[in-house]
Specification:
It is built from ten helices and 13 strands. With about 325 residues, the protein is an alpha/beta fold. The chain has two domains: about 200 residues, 3-Layer(aba) Sandwich (Rossmann fold); about 80 residues, UDP-galactose 4-epimerase, domain 1 (Alpha-Beta Complex), CATH 3.90.25.10. The strands form four sheets. The chain has a seven-stranded parallel beta sheet with strand order 3-2-1-4-5-6-11, sandwiched between helices. It has a two-stranded parallel sheet with strand order 7-10. A two-stranded parallel ribbon has the order 8-13. The radius of gyration is 19 Å and the shape is globular. The chain binds uridine-5'-diphosphate. The site of uridine-5'-diphosphate has 14 residues, from helix 5 and strand 8. Uridine-5'-diphosphate (UDP) binds next to helix 5 and strand 8.
Length: about 325
């Protein structure tokens, strides 16, 4: 049955991260009691410090790959804890594997004990370097298990398998969202991903580093659109994976050019080696999300990039140069 149940207390793992912190804001706004959890390896308390004064918010500093204990009722668990950037997987590969596998198992156990609905953050990376384009949920993917991205991709694939097993074997109420590239305020400036890298370089007037020849494509979704898709998925009763992302596809070279234009920087675009196993193309087919959630993105890249650039400008490291 669609709609939320009576127990409006929700555990959000990765609460101090980019997506986790936006989810905390949204669920508090929707009248939920939010229990945030994070081990702060890649998350930052500055993303949630505005919530600490609210009685609707509690926070546990904890690593979910260890046994998870939360006292009291829980209606929902959103598992968003994970390093999410390719340079993070290289730096902390074992933690990346553990949070997606052991962490997911612990949280599924907690969901079962509390009779909570469990929603997991899966990813377009389950499709690997896709040979089917655009990617539909029925595509099984093309992942190199032992490449640099394998630790993330395989943990997320295991996470999906484990979640479906808890659904079919234990009858647990579950949701799986496959998230495509998302951007917006609270991304980490130095997380190594294209958007913060380009915006940071533009603000410092240093070279903008496009990897490869920049012909690889991505499709960037503004964070508010993504959060709306996740909110609708949780409220729905759809248990199979759903792609949530923006189908507007561009090359990374074009993306860099858009950021150069928006920022008015003097930076030049330079070309560096393409990292191993970097997917050549990526675009979600969102017909399923349209059909089962009545969802599609609303924020254009022009609007979203402007809001995000304005956010990066406010960071302390840019204050002296730009105030
Ligand atoms: N990229 C780039 N310059 C950078 C960082 C990333 O050209 O400084 C490229 C990267 O090789 C990839 C694309 O931008 O082709 C998106 O990379 P990101 O790390 O943002 O996400 P993902 O590869 O996981 O989609």
């Amino acid at each position: 049955m669609e709609g939320f149940k009576k127990t409006k207390r929700i555990l959000i793992t990765g609460a101090a991260g980019f997506l986790g912190s936006h989810l905390c804001d949204r669920f508090i706004k929707e009248g939920f009691q939010v229990v945030g959890m994070d081990n702060l390896i890649t998350g930052s308390l500055s993303n949630i410090e505005h919530l600490f004064k609210l009685k609707e918010f509690e926070f546990y500093h904890h690593d979910v790959s260890k046994f998870v204990h939360v006292p009291g009722d829980l209606g929902y668990i959103l598992h968003f804890a994970s390093p999410a950037s390719p340079i993070d997987y290289l730096k902390i590969p074992i933690q990346t594997l553990k949070v997606g596998s052991l962490g997911t198992h612990n949280l599924l156990g907690l969901a079962k004990a509390k009779n909570a609905t469990m929603l997991i953050a899966s990813t377009s990376e389950v499709y690997g370097d896709p040979v089917v384009h655009p990617q539909k949920e029925t595509y099984w993917g093309n992942v190199n298990p032992i490449g640099p991205r394998g630790v993330y991709d395989e943990a997320k694939r295991f996470q999906e398998a484990m979640t479906m097993a808890y659904h079919t074997y234990h009858g647990l109420d579950t949701r799986i969202v496959r998230i495509f590239n998302t951007y917006g305020p609270r991304m980490r400036l130095n997380d190594g991903r294209a958007l913060p890298a380009f915006m940071g370089q533009a603000l410092k007037d240093i070279d903008i580093t496009v990897f490869g020849d920049g012909s690889q494509t991505r499709s960037f979704c503004y964070v508010d659109d993504l959060i709306e898709g996740i909110y609708r998925l949780l409220k729905s009763d759809y248990i199979y994976p759903v792609n949530v992302g923006n189908p507007q596809e561009i090359t990374i070279k074009q993306f860099a050019e858009e950021i150069v234009e928006l920022s008015g920087t003097k930076s030049k675009i330079v070309y560096k080696d393409l990292p191993k196993d970097d997917p050549k193309q990526r675009r979600p087919d969102i017909s399923l999300a349209k059909e089962v959630l009545g969802w599609e993105p609303k924020v254009s890249r022009q609007e979203g990039l402007k809001i995000t650039f304005d956010y990066f400008k406010t960071l302390p490291e840019f204050q002296e140069v730009h105030s």
